[in-house]
Structures are given as C-alpha cells and as structure tokens.
Write a structure and sequence with these properties.
Layout (H helix, E strand, L loop, with lengths): L2 E2 L2 H26 L6 H33 L4 H28 L10 H6 L13 H17 L3 H26 L2 H12 L1 H4 L8 H25 L9 H16 L7 H5 L12 H30 L3 H12 L22 H21 L6 E2 L2 H15 L10 H17 L5 H8 L23 H6 L63
Antiparallel strand pairs: 1-2
Helix pairs in contact: 1-2, 1-14, 2-14, 3-6, 3-7, 6-7, 6-9, 7-16, 9-10, 10-12, 14-16, 15-16
C-alpha cells in the first residue's frame, strides 16, 4: 500500500534519517575507538560509509527500474518461489536457534523462574491479582499450561518459542500486505535471527502480548486493504473493518497501553492511496469509526473487569491510569538494554552482522526520495517514534518495557526502506489494471507495425491510409503502457444517396393486377 507524501511524512523521514545517521556514527565510534582510532577518523569513515550507502541505493534503484521494465512480468512466479523458500528457511532457522537457546537456559536460575514460581501448580497456588492486564493474562495462560502438562520448565520455554514463531508469521503477513515482499522478508529475518543477537527465550509476558499485537496489526491492515479497494463505495461495508479494528485495539489497550499505538495504523487511512478517488470526509469518518470502536471496547473491558473483581469501574480505571500514567521524560530508558548483544563468538562475524544491520537501517534515509509522490515508510516510523516516546515517558511497565517491539519496528522501517529501492509503481499499475486516460498512449503490439491508426477524416472521405515503410529502428515498446491492437474488422462505407434521373414507362403492359372472382378458390 502506498501513502501520499506530505509535510508530516517528510518530518518523519527527517527523524528517521537523523536516527539512522546517529546510529551509524555511534557504531563507527564503538568499533573504532577501542582499537586506538581517533574521533575525526571515525567521523570521516562514518561520512564515507553514509555517502556510499546513498550512492548504492540510487544506482540500484535505477538499475532495477530498467530490469523490471524489461522482464518484470515474466519473473513474477520465480520471485514468489524464491520468497517462499526464503520464508520457510528463516522459520526453520528461527526454530533451531530458539531450541538451541532454550537448551542453554539455566533452569535453576532464580532470575528466570520468577514467573514460573508464581503460577506453578501447588495446593496453595493462587494467581496474583496484578493490575497490569497483559501480565495477568500471561500468568493465567502459563498456569493453565502447567495444569495440563505439569510443573515443567520445558513446557514454559516451549510456550515462549511457539509464541515467538507465531509472532514472526503474523508479522510477515501484515508487513507484506502493508509494505511489500522485501520489507516482510527483512523483518522476518530480523525476528527469526534474534537469538543470534540476544537471548530470545526468556520467560515473561512480552512474547504473548507481542503475538496479540501482531494479530491486531493484521486486522488493521486488512481494514486498510478493504478501504483501499472500495473506499468510495457508499455504506458501512467499506469502512466497517475500522470498527472491528477499533474493538481489537481497545482490548489490546486495556491489556497494555502499547496496544493503542495501532490507532496510528487506522489513522493512516487519511493519507492512503486508493484505487478510486475517496473524499476527505469519508477518510475522517473511517478513522473516527476506529476510534469509536476503541473507546467502546476499552470501557467494556473495564466493565467486565469490574464485574469479575467486584470493584467499581472508577477504581479500576484509576488503577489502569496509575500503571500507565506518564512520568518524567528521559532518553536513558531507551538504552537500558543494548540493541545488539551478540552471542557470536567470532569478533569479525559480530562486526559484519552489525555493519549489515546499520547499512540496511541507513538505506531508508535515501530510498525515501526514490519516488516523488508516495512512500511506504512513514507508518512504521510513526509507530517506532510513538513507542519510543511511551518508553521515554515511563508509561510502559518494568515487566514490559517494549524495547523488543521497538527494535522490531525499527527493523520493519528499515525493511520498508529497502522495499522503496524497488520500482513498485509498476506493481501498482498492474494491480489497478489501468491508468488515467491522459497518461495512456496507444502503442501497437509489434514494434514493426506498418499501418497508422484510422482517423475520423478517413471515414468521412472514404479514403484509407496508405502503408508507410517499416522502420526497424524504432525504440522498444515500454511494457508499462497499455498496448492496443488495430481493428481487424472492415469499416462501414459512407452512405451515398441515390436519385432517379429517368422516367417510368406509363403503358398498360406493366399492369399485373388481374381481377379475381369472388367464388374463385384458386384450385385451377
């Protein structure tokens, strides 16, 4: 899906470019200074690195545009096969890495067993009454699993692995529909290879909530896709998906405030490029319908909590606000956990992995300008920025700081930047199966066609055009333009009125009207 460029998207791009540049310079300094390098040399290396990244992005975009115009239609199935193999391979690698990580997990460690000890089945087991909805829901799920499988740490670790793999799958489908194939593969690769960078199998409520968040993202993306296809259709059907998305967002917002970030995806309908012209007021109504569904679902959850706990709604609402109320803003909260904590033993391999990640992140700062009118990065940048603000303001709990999701959103934004290198205008053209009339040029099927098109003057004068000599040096036909064929049927001739310019003979020999008797039965 494409979004129209505007002032807001340019501001978001500037923030993203500033972030990418800061990360690139910081990475260069971290890798260079321990080796005895100086700061000026590090800045020069970072500048050259950034300039080379931009040059490669623009040259690659130019090259892919030409190649796509030549054989983009015929290689569609090949790309799907390659994509499918890459996705299956990434999922297999992700499962393998997480199983290996779980086998190295210290089951006897007290730091990792706090959740297990709280819900393991005993005679006196009682689930703690936690105000944080996502944490309480995770405790209930983990307790139910231990009831069926027994007090085994392996069962809890397997649950974490399953939740993370399902999160990656839902992430792939959501990003693929909203941004594109390349962005989805890049995001899935980051998520599945997380155990290479940090310990991924850690007991806690975050994996379960991340899965629910990705499911909500898929619902919102499906509503956007329906609105893009038939947003101009009168009635509620084309915008009804936003109300359903609002219900899901309200439930997720009750569990954790990070769920309310999905409202940004719903509000992105204001800038979404649709197949038909959609009025601005209808876009506003779509976003308002999603907001209404969010409010309704949120207060319904508060009411159900009040009924189940026997407390008043005001007290539950105040308790929710006390957990997620903002505090003093601090940037340090974003760096409490390192973004890259590699378990790769080889130092050279670690440097290569970090360099590749930073380069991919920097691509989006340049690929944003590969096209003039639309882009696909702003929605992910807005989500990452909003989540960073929530974390910096202290609105996220200590049990779920949201850093894992924040890094994932940055990875998706980086993947969207890589996707922008591709000439996806042609994909949009083939999807719509038509362009505006003023942009269509009639092109013959063959480059060596020798007859010119008939005009209205030719029909009026009954003069057919003469054949022109074939020009074998014509430029190849561009595949992105609609190709029309000549009319193979004969054209109608002009009507010529006939006038009688001679006299009719008035003799009796031309009279064939014979009298017939009344009793004549015509049997002779």
């Amino acid at each position: 899906m494409n979004y129209k460029k505007g002032i807001l998207s340019v501001i978001l791009w500037f923030i993203y470019a500033l972030t990418a540049g800061t990360v690139l310079v910081g990475t260069t300094m971290v890798m260079l200074l321990p080796e005895g390098g100086s700061r000026p040399i590090g800045l020069v290396i970072a500048g050259v690195w950034l300039a080379m990244t931009g040059l490669v992005v623009f040259l690659l975009h130019r090259f892919l545009w030409v190649k796509w115009a030549q054989n983009g239609e015929g290689s569609g199935q090949v790309k799907l096969i390659i994509e499918g193999l890459a996705v299956v391979a990434l999922i297999a690698v992700g499962i393998t890495l997480r199983v290996r990580e779980s086998m190295q997990y210290d089951i006897s460690g007290a730091a990792g067993n706090i959740w297990f000890d709280a819900v393991k089945v005993t005679e006196t087991t009682r689930i703690p009454q936690v105000v944080h909805g996502a944490v309480y829901f995770y405790l209930q799920v983990l307790h139910g699993l231990l009831v069926f499988l027994g007090n085994k740490m392996t069962a809890a670790l397997v649950l974490q692995i399953v939740l993370q793999i399902l999160t990656g799958i839902f992430l792939y489908f959501a990003v693929r529909k909203l941004t594109g194939m390349v962005a989805a593969v890049v995001s899935l690769a980051y998520w599945m290879l997380c155990p290479v960078l940090s310990g991924a199998v850690i007991l806690g409520p975050e994996p379960l909530y991340q899965l629910l968040w990705m499911i909500g993202l898929c619902v919102c993306v499906e509503a956007l896709d329906s609105f893009r296809g038939r947003g101009d259709t009168p009635g509620i059907r084309s915008v009804g998906g936003f109300f359903l998305s609002g219900i899901v967002i309200g439930i997720l917002g009750y569990l954790d405030v990070a769920g309310l970030l999905l409202l940004l995806v719903v509000f992105s309908a204001l800038f979404l490029e649709t197949k038909q012209q959609v009025k601005w007021m209808r876009r506003i109504c779509a976003g308002a319908l999603g907001l209404f569904g969010t409010v309704v679902a949120f207060f319904v959850c508060i009411a159900l909590d009040a009924v189940g706990s026997g407390k008043q709604m005001e007290n539950i609402l105040l308790a929710w606000w006390k957990v997620f109320s903002p505090g003093r803003f601090t940037w340090i909260a974003l760096y409490e956990q390192p973004a890259v904590h590699t378990y790769v033993p080889d130092k050279v391999a670690t440097v290569i992995i970090v360099a590749v990640m930073v380069t991919i992140l920097a691509c989006g700062a340049f690929s944003y300008w590969c096209r003039k009118e639309h882009e696909r990065q702003s929605v992910w940048i807005a989500l990452a920025l909003a989540l960073g603000i929530l974390n910096g303001c202290g609105m996220l709990s200590e049990d779920m700081p949201g850093l894992t999701l924040w890094y994932l959103l940055l990875a998706v934004a980086a993947g969207a930047g890589v996707q922008a290198v591709l000439p996806y205008e042609m994909e949009l053209l083939r999807e719509v199966k038509g362009v505006l009339p003023e942009t269509v040029e009639a092109v013959p099927v063959g480059a060596a066609s020798t007859k010119r098109r008939l005009k209205v003057q030719d029909l009026e004068t009954e003069e057919f055009p003469e054949e022109e000599p074939a020009d074998f040096q014509e430029e190849p036909v561009e595949t992105e333009k609609i190709q029309l064929i000549e009319n193979p049927l004969p054209l109608p001739k002009k009507h010529v009125p006939k006038v009688l310019d001679y006299k009719l003979n008035g003799d009796d020999d031309s009279d064939f009207d014979y009298p017939v008797a009344d009793d004549d039965d015509f049997d002779h």
